[in-house]
Amino acid sequence: MGRLDGKVAIITGGASGMGASHVKKLASEGAKVVFTDVLAREGQALQAELGRNTLFLQQDVTDADRWDEIIKEAETAFGAVNVLVNNAGLNYSEYLENFPEDAYRQVIEVNQTAVFLGMKAVIPSMKKAESGSIINISSIGGLRGRIAGIAYGASKFAVTGMTKVAALELGQYQIRVNSIHPSLVNTGMFSEQAGGSNVATDRPLKRVLTKEEVSNLVLHLASDESSYTTGAECVIDGGLTAR
């Protein structure tokens, strides 16, 4: 018996990195998983690897019409949707004085507007299921400022607030909405992001977060084990923001 037996999940940005880890984790626990990405080749390869009970669909998460299509295709393939993981994200680092307007708008569209679109689109399907769990991947950048991160910070702080509003509005339908706030995750891009520094030294746990650890938290929030958790900021940062 899996912890997500009988549940249908949609995961955005699921073709690689942390998103692919979420796809594998939820599928391994019995969920039927629809995962989306702009990266078609990587998505198709992951579906071929995982096989039955997974479905890859190409998606630009900023396209509202495509969101409606994704929900319909998920329902046709597997039934009403129980879980939505808004994982797709984008970063652009530059100081405010030099930050390009088009880059700012793009980050906001992918990190913030797409979360709004996804939450809105999935509500009718979760009402059919008579329960649901929406999991928005934010960041510790949605809890505190970071130099050269004006767009990323704006978008992730917005996700934190949007999550709370959605939790208040959707609780009456037994739809839970929570945000996850990771610190820097050790993915393939980790060395580049870390700039070669030993970032683990500033964390009380003295090590860097793994994508599998984030996926374990996603699994908990997707499952009925977290049935009374909603509107929460679920921080997973090794104690970094406790200082």
UniProtKB/TrEMBL annotation:
It comes from the Bacteria. Keywords: Oxidoreductase. Pfam families: adh_short_C2 (PF13561). The lineage of its organism: Bacteria, Bacillati, Bacillota, Bacilli, Bacillales. InterPro entries: NAD(P)-bd_dom_sf, Sc_DH/Rdtase_CS, SDR_fam. NCBIfam families: PRK07231.1. Belongs to the short-chain dehydrogenases/reductases (SDR) family. The keyword Oxidoreductase applies. SUPFAM superfamilies: NAD(P)-binding Rossmann-fold domains (SSF51735). This is 3-alpha-hydroxysteroid dehydrogenase. Transmembrane segments: none annotated.
